[in-house]
Structure formats: C-alpha cells, structure tokens
Amino acid sequence: MARNYASVAFTPEVKALQERYGSRQAYAHMEQKATGTRLSDSESNFIQERDSFYIASIGENGFPYIQHRGGMKGFLHTIDPQTLAYADLRGNRQFITVGNAATNPKVSLILMDYARRARLKVYAEVEIVAINDRQDLADLVIPEGYENIAERIVLLHIVAFDWNCPKYITPRYAMEEINQMVAPMQERIKELESEVLRLKKQNELFTANSPH
Ligand SMILES: Cc1cc2nc3c(=O)[nH]c(=O)nc-3n(C[C@H](O)[C@H](O)[C@H](O)COP(=O)(O)O)c2cc1C
C-alpha cells in the first residue's frame, strides 16, 4: 500500500499547476525517487519524542477536519516501519475523527518539533481496532492507569511520508525543555548570589575594622 509521498500528493491538478508555474520539472524528480515508504530509525525516533500531533480526516460532506491530539511523550507508537498506533481515550465524545475515518479511512498527520524546527508529514489509512480484539496492542499503546477510559485503538497504516523544510517554523519550547535550558543559569545565579553575599560580608567587616 505504501507509496512515494509525491505520488500521493501530486494529483493531476497539482501537477498542472506545477507545470503552469514552472516547478513541474524539479518536482518530477522527487516523484521518481522511491523514498518514504518505510519509516527509518530517524522517523521512528522523531515520532517517539512527540507529545502531540495534528490529524486531518475527511467528513462525509467532503470537508476536511483537523484535530490536535496530545498525550504523554511517545503516545503515538511505531508498531512496525509502516504502522503507527495510539489509544483513543475517552474525551469530549464528539467522535469526529473516528466518524470520518469510518466512511473514509484516508488521513493526514503532521508532527511538529518546534524546538528543533522539524516537521514530518504522513499520509495514512485508519483501521479502528477494538481493545478486546488486540490485547497485545492494547498493552503497548494504552498508558498505565488509563485502561478504563481507552475506547479503541487507532491503527495508522502508512501510505507515504515526507519531511518538510524547517523554514518558517518558529522555535517554541515545552516547559520541560525550558527547565532544562535554564537549569545551568539558575545554578550560576545561586553561585553568584552566594559570592555577592560573601563579598558584602567581607566588605562590612573591612569597613567596621578600618580606622575612621
Ligand atoms: C475528559 C477529557 C479528556 C480528554 N483527553 C484528551 C487527550 O488525552 N488528548 C487530546 O488530544 N484531547 C483530549 N481531549 C479533548 C478531545 O476530547 C479530543 O481531542 C477528542 O479526541 C476530539 O476528537 P474529535 O475532534 O475527532 O472528535 C479530552 C477531552 C475531555 C473532555
């Protein structure tokens, strides 16, 4: 099922526009490169580090729908080089994404690493799996303590994926990353504060003992 990303993204109308605006030749090369059908360690590691992603699905009325999914780092699991999975936990019970996927399994994901300015795009087909049907998968993807509210497992069969250029991604940091970055500065501030205190005391002593 897996295909080269460009061969999915470049529909006839997209190609016609590339032709019209002069970029077709360059992109024809990209289309021929047989890349991006199996996740390498680079993509798997990237996915494992994510604590959120965006997923677009298509409604019965043809409207695309996009939703942000968030969870513990690594909640989107790489099952094998062509399959991702996550536990669909009970939420607001609107069921828009799963409802859309029931009539059209085609979805698109975008995974962002704002801090390192990287983004991965994925085309996939959804398979909804009942928790009781796949205990092995359930054990893997349902976070500990969430067994009671896991409603289903969403399997994503990868059709194609591609990295996007980092340009225009504004670096943003999670609290955890900010804490890590400021830790050495906080340590240095503490050292300097005690140094200032020591010097102040030394100065007071010196002033008190000096002849008037
Ligand atoms: C109690 C509760 C828990 C939720 N937990 C999550 C969560 O873990 N991750 C998340 O992305 N959204 C969570 N949400 C928000 C939405 O329910 C969630 O995004 C939902 O999957 C929306 O899907 P839909 O827009 O496709 O219907 C939660 C909402 C509620 C009310």
From TrEMBL:
It comes from the Bacteria. Keywords: Coiled coil. It holds the Pfam family PNPOx_N. The keyword Chloroplast does not apply. Residues 175-209 form a coiled coil. Residues 45-140 form the Pyridoxamine 5'-phosphate oxidase N-terminal domain. The keyword Cell inner membrane does not apply. This is Pyridoxamine 5'-phosphate oxidase family protein.
